[in-house]
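tool_log.txt
---
The assistant was asked to compare two proteins side by side. It first ran the structure predictor on the initial sequence, then on the second. Raw inputs and outputs are pasted verbatim so the downstream comparison step can read them without reformatting.
(1)
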Amino acid sequence: MDRTELYRNCCLCPRECKVDRRAGKTGFCGMTSEVMAARAALHFWEEPCISGTEGSGAVFFSGCTLRCVFCQNHEIAAGAVGKPVTEERLSRIFLELQEKGANNINLVTATQFLPTVIPALQHAKKMGLTIPIVYNTGGYEKVETLRLLEELVDIWLPDCKYRSAELAARYSRAADYPETVKTALTEMVRQTGAPLFDRRGMMKKGVIVRHLVLPGCVSDSKDVLEYLWDTFGNQIYVSIMSQYTPLPHVAAYPEINRKVTDEEYEEIVDYARFLGMSQVYIQEGGCVGESFIPPFNYEGIERNV
């Protein structure tokens, strides 16, 4: 099967734009069928069981199927930054990251390019890629698309951003996000099963669900945690993130144009404890700031000469 046919009448994500991206047209993600990426380098700011001390081999793809108004990686999400990458070069990038000692290959927002990413992964595995594959996503995924990745992805790293359809519509133009992420998470857990770690404490298989705390949204954050615990229990790990950074482009949304307070974050962490959640990553103070946003300077994208 020529998977690039999936770029025609594109329905890879829940937006189902049905445009012919092979003909150079773009849908919501803003991308044609030409793969664009902004960075491929060791990344040290993921959860400890993903980055470790050696780093995660993160490949940041351009474009996004969500494009949240508060996006911390807005430059690449909007497609303003990125260079073309062929399928052959992408395979080589994966192998180069493994050679640099990466704990895993971390595919950051790759859904819009899966018809190219999948064969690139398959080829790299044939050429000696053995480290785990991490799929880093906003959680707005179709089950049919996720099933294309079965037996290729070892670790799912999705967001669960909202339980409120109103918040999802306002900040991500996706009122269906709460229901869509439920089916996506269920499929991810089905594919990987129980979490598995090596002797160093690095995750080899499993699901880590991230939740970025937004200012003024404590009630919805509690709803997210309650849903995750009631539905999945200890089948997953949860990462409660305090690193929300109010960048200039959120000025049009004054209610989130500020940092999350220590009190807000602690209230949510305390609620996780109240629920009985034990497999939880939390962030210490000082995680807010643009220093935690990597430079999208095309490191690792072009072949070293």
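(2)
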Amino acid sequence: MRRKRKAEVIMGATQSLEPAARRVKPSADPPSCSSSTGDLSCVPLEILEEIYLNLPPDQVVCTCKLVCHQWKDVADSESLWRERCRREGYRLRDASKIPKDWRLFYFLCKKRRNLLKNPRAELNMEGWQILENGGDRWKVEGVMVPHPVDTVQQNFVTSYGMCKKAQVIDLEKEGYGPSFMDHFQPDIRISDWYAPRWDCGSEYEICVELLNQRKRPIHTFAPEPSTFEQWNDQKWNQMTHVFQNYGAGVRFIRFCHGGKDTQFWAGWFGIRVTDSCVEICPAVDT
């Protein structure tokens, strides 16, 4: 009977959530449940937290907390967001580094994404700064052979002179503030896909730098260039790297790559690049 009663309370409270939220205009100071929403104050806090744990997180933040003080307190509670992290598998990399804001930690894990703009050449050269444009310059083409990710249909193509392009990522503008980066030092994962033409030799280069506030390098990943002989298998290759334990002060990431053909053929016979990626990874990958 007790379990049945608890289920009825949860279902009733959930059904009343949206109408109650609509009756309240957004404000910095929500009303108290007892004065504005009748019996909402009767919902036990542990039941209310369980309801929140089964709602979309954006709805909890943007709607539920506006209902009354009690609902806001639960929506802002550390226990709620710590439990969401636990249930969804967002585990700390270092147990000694406890988040000051579990809600921020949760959303940064939840909304992990590629920070590079236009990584697959779908918008031509938009978002990229051209550093070198040798030979017949950069060009965008469809992939010559299928990419391992079947949604990738375009790539950037280099020419017979060196072609390089870059992006600089402002971490604070992307939501990764200085205190978060310095305290957690989350893994920074980079990857890049590149392929030669089968009938022409080519060269591929990449350089990724973690920069401080003055945009000076703190750490650099710059492997030796990859070269391909003529009459190769034309397959796609992936370059990957993870920055870890890089210390405080990282504020920007500079991603640069490119290459050329090595036989000086007019046109676009050089290296192809696409589906580049830079991700901030606060939680342990499972």
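---
observation on (2): Residues 2-110 form a domain with the Monooxygenase fold (CATH 1.20.1280.50). The chain has two domains: 2-110, 129-281.
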